[in-house]
């Protein structure tokens, strides 16, 4: 099985530019500040002039997760609901438009970070691939969409902190958790120096 570092080297050897697909959990790691490794990943990619990609679907998933987080946190902090009740009713959230706009801006800033993230729109052949993956594997339907987006866009690899997805996606695309992706990027070599050769 091919390693992400090997895949990156192959892309560079062919004169291409590596592009890593970021799963929703990596986007949320950055947005929520819960894992600095994902932020380091974006910086390592930026230093080398490479790109990261995610999908419109990941954008929607991130919006959903952030809305749930804001809703449950506000209900618990204001003493309106227990943590369990807030979590149980999270799908009944009723955030006002001003809060929804702030959430959208926050997630979009992460996706737009440093101009690194390309948003992938899954076309009809991409949906066919996602459906084929769902029908032929034990990969969750939502994860099949991510894998199909990464493959359809020709991404070098998929980065996710979802251990189940890591194992199952590896049959279709090179996959790595953020900490391994950072190590693999650094193993390929230092970023180019400005004006250097």
Report on the architecture of this protein:
The chain contains ten helices and five strands; from the N terminus they run H-E-H-H-E-H-H-H-E-H-H-E-H-E-H. It has a five-stranded parallel sheet with strand order 3-2-1-4-5, sandwiched between helices. It has 197 residues and is an alpha/beta fold. It is globular, with a radius of gyration of 18 Å. The chain is 60% helix and 9% strand. The chain has a single domain, classed as 5'-nuclease (Rossmann fold), CATH 3.40.50.1010. Helix 9 links the parallel strand 4 and strand 5.
Shape: globular
Helix content: 55-70%
What can be said about the biggest beta sheet? 5 strands, parallel
**Structure summary, number of beta strands:** 5
What is the fold-level CATH name, i.e. the topology? Rossmann fold
Question: Strand share of the residues?
Answer: 5-15%
Mean pLDDT over the full residue set: 90
- For the largest sheet, list the strands in their spatial order: 3-2-1-4-5
Number of domains: 1
Corresponding CATH superfamily:
5'-nuclease
- Provide the low-confidence segments as ranges: none
The succession of helices and strands, N to C, reads HEHHEHHHEHHEHEH
- The CATH class is Alpha Beta
CATH second-level architecture: 3-Layer(aba) Sandwich
Structure annotation, total helices: 10
Give the N-terminus to C-terminus distance in angstroms.
32 Å
Which structural class best describes the helix and strand composition?
Answer: alpha/beta
User: What value does the Rg take, in angstroms?
Assistant: 18 Å
């Amino acid at each position: 099985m091919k390693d992400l570092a090997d895949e990156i080297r192959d892309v560079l050897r062919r004169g291409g530019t590596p592009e890593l697909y970021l799963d929703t959990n990596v986007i949320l790691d950055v947005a929520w500040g819960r894992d600095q490794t994902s932020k380091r990943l974006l910086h390592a990619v930026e230093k080398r002039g490479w790109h990261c990609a995610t999908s419109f679907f990941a954008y929607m998933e991130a919006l959903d997760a952030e809305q749930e987080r804001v809703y449950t946190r506000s209900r618990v902090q204001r003493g309106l609901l227990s943590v369990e009740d807030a979590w149980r009713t999270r799908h009944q959230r009723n955030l006002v438009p001003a809060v929804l706009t702030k959430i959208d801006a926050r997630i979009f800033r992460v996706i737009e970070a440093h101009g690194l993230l390309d948003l992938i729109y899954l076309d009809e052949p991409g949906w066919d691939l996602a459906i084929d993956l769902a029908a032929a594997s034990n990969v969750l339907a939502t994860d099949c969409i991510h894998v199909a987006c990464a493959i359809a866009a020709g991404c070098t690899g998929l980065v996710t902190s979802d251990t189940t997805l890591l194992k199952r996606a590896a049959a279709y695309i090179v996959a790595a958790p953020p900490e391994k992706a950072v190590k693999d990027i650094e193993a390929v070599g230092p970023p180019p120096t400005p004006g250097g050769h």
